[in-house]
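Quick one: structure for this chain?
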Amino acid sequence: MGGPAALIPAAAGAAVAALWLALVLDRVLGEPPARWHPVVWMGHYLGWTGRRIAPYAGAALRADYGRFLAGMLAWCAGAAIVACAALALQWLAGQLPWWAGALLMGVALKPMLAWRMLRREVLSVERALGESLDAGREQLSYLVSRDVTWLSESQVRESAIESLAENLNDSVVAPIFWFVVAGLPGAAVYRFANTADAMWGYRGVRGGRVWEWAGKFAARADDALSWIPARITALLLALAALRWPRGIVREARRTPSPNSGWPMAAMALLLNVRLGKPDFYVLHREGRNVKAQDMFRALRLGARVVGLAGSLASVALLLTLVHWR
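Got it. Here's what it folds into:
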């Protein structure tokens, strides 16, 4: 898929410039309009194919290998389309002067990163809580898929910080990691996989359809592609806080996901707060209830992680240049 070898030797510098341009564009401009957003296009494809492979609610929750195969083929076809489009853009960037190639790559990479939007959504939850608990719950419902009806004020903040930690990996660290590993196609395919998991990766019924088998491959693909980045995100949070979150391995294993528990557990331990999903899991049970100031502390840690991720990725890309010289 056009990894670092496709970016070296001269293009490694352009890749670094493209990465920082994407981060600057994200900070200054945020998300592009929906009609021009590649991730929205991915969602349209996944929605269209998902309606054809997932049965309506009421279907028996049994092993259905036909639905599994259909989901796998639809996922692979979508990933191939995304990879080819990104590879074509990367090839075109390589034919241009380095500054023009960096500009094209940066603009193409930006939609794969979403720190500004994530930060804004988390801040919106805190602002809404300043109005009322019901307003906070309503704002949180735009950020998470869980039932928010009966959450307390502290639990609303817990959910927002959990979403911040998890999406810090999904929307920043993992796309940057795969950009370093496999260029623009790597970042784009990761975002496709993560979007597919968000739309298809459910057990049982969601949105009036049964996803148990139709979405199983999408869920496992996202698990595989997120495995290393999720642990890197936890490490970057520790670097941002300048201390190691003791007990992180134990706490991370409390969540059903093999990956999301790592950044969430790191955040809970570093902030010394209790995070959890009612009736499912609790992270750092000995921690205190989340307060408003913890939301801002979490956002500051997240901002540092974004800078660290960009810096370490730049070093990795430039090291490939040194190696090939």
